[in-house]
Every structure is written in structure tokens, then in C-alpha cells.
Input
Amino acid sequence: MTHTITLLPGDGIGPEVAAAVVGILDRAGVDIEWESCLAGAAALERHGTTLPAEVLASIRRNKVALKGPLTTPVGGGFTSVNVGLRKALDLFANLRPVWKLPSVRSRYEQVDLVIVRENTEDLYAGLEHEIVPGVIESLKIITQSASTRIARFAFEYARANGRARVTAVHKANIMKLGDGLFLDSARQVAAEYPDITFDDRIVDAMCMQLVLDPSAFDMLLLPNLYGDIVSDLCAGLVGGLGVVPGANLGDDIAVFEAVHGSAPDIAGRNIANPMALLLSALLMLRHLGEEEAADRIMLALRQVLAEGRVRTRDLGGAATTTEFADAISEHLLTPIS
Ligand code: NAI
Output
């Protein structure tokens, strides 16, 4: 079956890592027709906007997109294209699996966490104003409907993926109403899933416990801001932003993207690590029901990492983006004995 998928190569290192990933999926024999669209800084030059209407139309039509990093220009009143995309398409769930991969240097051997972050409200609602000079009010919006929706997403994911426990993360001891509502909503949803253990942690204690022993947790459920911060902390537990995938999911639309940004400091040099976008593409393949291809690519990636000969610079090697991608493709073509 041919899958038609919107491809946003992004900017900075985006086009380089996107080309590497598209090449690997092609060599794995997955039948994909890519609909490539410009967004971000590249679209601004050509279309005068960072998020052209045709990008949204393409994603709405195809329901699935693979997205490279997008630069948010500083100043000029530009809001984040990433936040704009999530809002426009109601991608309410941000999913980040955080695994320890072989031969990627990190402090822990055993990390297998899944982070579910609410993606639409909290302090990201963008509601800020100056009350009087020198006094700013930033509004933290927490609703029962969004909190219940994301909690249900987490428990459904747990059930579908054999996860045993969901831990809600909050600061309800201080923000008794807002975070209290998030926690109460999670508790109510948890009661419908007696097969999944539910507990909760205050966000500061959670950060400390994750750093001490990440293997003590399974799935984390967080409102938007804590989710943003804690998921980067968790990326740091397994080797950094270059190795962690992500997905932004709505009721019927899914946008898969690496967690890292457009890395302007190394753009155009063919040295970026394509692994995070590749792992995001594997989440996409599983979403599309292409489990077999996803398993084969994952095995090839694990083999390349375990051999340790071909690694990009961020992983302590000297390989280029294309050399790393080619090494994975070669393993794909080598029959398993
Ligand atoms: P960044 O993630 O682009 O870079 C941080 C550091 O990590 C840099 O030293 C960079 O060279 C390195 N790095 C990132 N990805 C790498 C990779 N795949 N391989 C090797 N090294 C890698 O974060 P920064 O500099 O804060 O943001 C740059 C731009 O990216 C900004 O305009 C920001 O708005 C945007 N951004 C976009 C995101 C998205 O599209 N989802 C997420 C985060 C930032």
C-alpha cells in the first residue's frame, strides 16, 4: 500500500537529516509518496509567511506528516511555527518515548520512559499582558476537558503498549486550583483503568527522582510547561536531544518530529545526526501499521551503534550525516544470518 505523507524538511539541518531519513525508508522498501512543503524560515523567504496555508491543507489531507526542525525567527513579532502548527491542527498530545540505545554514551544503562505532555494550553496559551509598567501577568490556562483528554490518551496508550503505570506530574500543592484540576482529572480517568497503576509526584521531586533513578518510572503524564522541561531532562538521561524522537498527535492527525531544533551552528555541513528524526519516522511507520519495516530499520540502527565504527560527531565519531545513513541502509540490505 502506498502511503501519502506530508514532508516538512524544515530549515537549518532539517533538509540534511530529512534527506537521510527519506533515503533509509526508501531502502527499507516502504512505499511512501512524499508531499514536500516549505515551512519556517524557508517559507518566509518564498511565501512571506512561516506557515503557509498549503502546509496545513496538505497535513489535513494526508493525516500524517514527518517534520524537520523549524527555526522561529527572533523578533519581528513571529510566533513559534511549531506552536502554531500544534494549535491549528489541534495536536493535543505530545508523545516522547525515551530509551537508552546501545553505545550511546549516557549516565544510565536502563532507561525506558514514555512521556505524555499536554500540548495546547497551560502557559503556552500565549496570554500575557502588562498590567502596569513593570508588572506582567502571564495566564496559565488549565481546563478539565483538555486535562481529561490527555489523561485518557495516556491510559489508552499504556493499555495498547503494555505499560503498567502512569505517574501524573504537577505542583498542586502550590497551584491548588490549576494543577489541582489537572491532577483530579487524571485521577478520575485513572479510575476507569484499574489494570494500570496510577500515582503522582510533585514536579520538583520528580526531577530529582528521575536523575537519581530513571528506571523507577514507566509513563509520565504532564501539563504543557512541566512536560516541556521534564522531557528535555529525560533526553539528557539517554544521551541528549540528538537521539530522542517525538510525535504530536490529534484525534486523526499525527505529526512526527525530532525533539531538537534547526542547529544553525552546524547547518549545511553534513555532520548532523539524523537519528532523532529517524526514530521519529519509526514511530510514524508503527502508526501506519508498517511494524515489520520499523523493526528492520531499528535492528539496523542498533547494529550500526553497537559496532561503533560509524558515528556522527555528537556521538563521539567522525562520520557525516550521509555516511551514518548509508551504514544503516547497508545493514538493511544485509540478510540476517
Ligand atoms: P538546537 O536543538 O537546534 O541546537 C542545540 C545544540 O544541539 C546545538 O549545538 C546543535 O548543534 C546541537 N544539535 C541539535 N540537533 C543536532 C543533531 N541532530 N545532530 C547533532 N547536533 C545537534 O537548539 P537551539 O539552538 O536552541 O535552536 C535553534 C533553532 O531551532 C531556533 O530557531 C529554535 O526556535 C528552533 N527549534 C525548533 C524546534 C522544532 O522545530 N521542533 C525545537 C527546538 C528549537
